[in-house]
Every structure is written in structure tokens, then in C-alpha cells.
Amino acid sequence: MREILVAGGLALIFSLFGTPVLIRALAKRGYGQIIRDDGPTSHHTKRGTPTMGGIIIILASIVAYFCAHLLSKNAVTTSVLLVMGLMVALGFVGFIDDWLKVSRQKSLGLKAKQKLSGQILFASIFGYLGTRFPDGDGLTPISLQLSTVRDTSITLGVGLVVVWVALMVTATSNGVNLTDGLDGLATGAAVMTFISFILIGVWEFGQSCAVSPGGNCYVVRDPLDLAVFAASLAGACTGFLWWNASPAKIFMGDTGSLALGGALAGIATSLRIELLLIPLGGLFVIISASVIIQIVYFKLTGGKRIFRMAPLQHHFELMGWGEVTIVLRFWIIAGLCVAAGLGLFYAQWVVS
User: Cα separation of 11 and 238, whole Å?
Assistant: First the structure.
């Protein structure tokens, strides 16, 4: 537990005081946000705000994690190293996208197929490597079983695991990317989900078959260390949120949104709670669904729209809601979704 507090606290400090340094560095080089012409007109005032802030979230979480391990003298685990690698890889894809936008001074970076290909490639590598590196008990970082709130009896096999993980990571990273449209919205929602991972990781460790054998125990590799890394991510996002809250002094960009989405999916997969990520990341699911519904309805009706604009947060902007109001209300929804997910997790343990 001490290691979790140290990792979270250090990440908060690094991010809180490191972000203004990054803001000055990005502003000096003119790396500002490019605003879409077809978006809400109120966003045009944000043009030029430094972007690629996800760099500090990635660095702060990684440095804090390793510092916590240096202080505790505990060994790092393969599970966290793989999730960390996934986060950095997807952050790199997002960085290229952001870099192309600011260098071209256009709102178009990587083509959709290019971005998607990068996400699928790195997610597949993560999924494959996760089924390797068994520990002394034969547990691999990623299980070959489909998991809901814990592993089920459904065996997928390596091939299907890779496909499933690639789908899950891609969907989650794009979900966070779509949510990152208002100041602080995606960052705040991500903090709540990472905190839920801390609670789940600690609980799985305390009720693991190695610590507390029994018919209801958890067979999960490295749950406590995954909780440490989730704490570092929660701390890093919180420190960044200080500067990202409205009016934002910096945006995380695709560098941050893709990286955070990868980390969310990677930790959920490693904790064996794959399908539980749907309620835990409920806000990301809702906003992604609004885009899908809008596109499908548009094509089926020959150009009609359900929402004034998708993603969903922009629909409410065009209805006249203030940005802060939307963010706060959507955070409430995110919190309720996290509470529901934790309730499902605990309920499964109680009734088993």
C-alpha cells in the first residue's frame, strides 16, 4: 500500500510541476492546437493552445513508478512493463499524429487507416507477448481465458486472444480520443477509472489464491504492481488536470489520449476484468456509441442526424450548454459508471 501512495504522490508532483515547463517549451516552438473549422465556433478561441501534453503524463507515470520501486526495493513486474510498453507505443502513434498537425498547420494528421494500423499493430504485439513469460506458478500476464469480472471457463487460445486484445485496445484508445474534446473531460474520467483499478488490484491481491486460498480466490498475476502503476497514472493525470481544466493551458493531444486508452485496456486485460472495462469506462463507451449511432443513422437516412454534432459533448455545446457544465455533468456520469463497475466486481465476489 505504501508503494501505491508513493507512486501516486510522486506522479502527481512530477506532472503538476512538470506541465508548466512543458507548456513553455511547446509555446516557445509554436506547437499549438489546430482547431477544426467544422467544430463548434466557441473552440476557435483555443487555437494555438499548446498540445502534445500527453508527453508529461507518460513521463510522470513511468518515472514515478520506477522511483517507487527504487524506494521499496521491490522488483518490477513483466505485466506492468508490457502495459507500459503498450502505453508508450500508442503514445508514439499519437505523437506522430500531433506532430503532423502542428507542422502542417492543419487539423489533419495521420490518415485514419494509418492511425488504426499503428494501434492494431502495437496492440497485437502486446496481446501476443502477454501470453508469454510465465512466472513460477505458470501464470502469464494475459490469460488465455475470456474474462468478465474474473476469468471465465471460455478458452480463447493465443490467436483469438491477440485478436480480442487488439479490438479492445483499439476501441478504448479511440474512445478516449473521442472524449478528449472539452477541457479536462477525458483526463478527469480517466482518473476515476485508474482509481478503480487501484481498488481492484489491491482486492485481487488480498484475495489471491496465493495469499488467501479458497474457492473464491483470484488467479491473477501481479495485481498489486498493476495497482501501483494505475496509481502513478491517476496521479499523473490529476497533476495534468490542474492545467488542463477549463480554460485549458495545454491539451493532451492524441499523444495523451491514445496512450491513456492503451493503458486502460492494458491494465484491464492484465487484471482479468476485460468486459468490466465497459462500465468502468462507461463515459468513453457512451461517447463512442454516439459517434457510431450518428454515422449509421446518417447513412441509413440519406443525410439526417440524430445529434446536432458528434461526439456527444459537442451536441450539448450546440444546444447552448456551457463547457464547464458539460464537463462536470459528464464527470458525474463517469463516476456513476465507475461505481456501477465496482459494484458488479464486488457483487460477483459476494455471490460466488
Answer: 9
Nearest CA to 259 out of 52, 5, 17 is that of: 52
Place of cell 480466490: 217
Considering only the C-alpha atoms of the chain, give the largest distance between any 2 of them, rounded to a whole number of Å: 62
**Cα separation of 271 and 265, whole Å?**
10
Residue 173 near residue 90 (C-beta atoms within 8 A)? yes
- Cα separation, 256 vs 298, in Å, equals 30
d(CA 327, CA 222): 34
- Nearest partner of 312 among 299, 328, 294, 329, judged by Cα: 294
Q: What is the pLDDT along the chain (352 residues), one digit of tens a residue?
A: 799 999 999 999 999 999 999 999 998 887 766 655 555 555 545 666 888 999 999 999 999 999 999 999 999 999 999 999 999 999 999 999 999 888 876 667 788 899 999 999 999 999 999 999 999 888 999 999 999 998 888 999 999 999 999 999 999 999 999 999 899 999 999 999 999 999 999 999 999 887 778 778 899 999 999 999 999 999 999 999 999 998 999 999 999 999 999 999 999 999 999 999 999 999 999 999 999 999 999 999 988 899 999 999 999 999 999 999 999 999 999 999 999 999 999 998 887 6
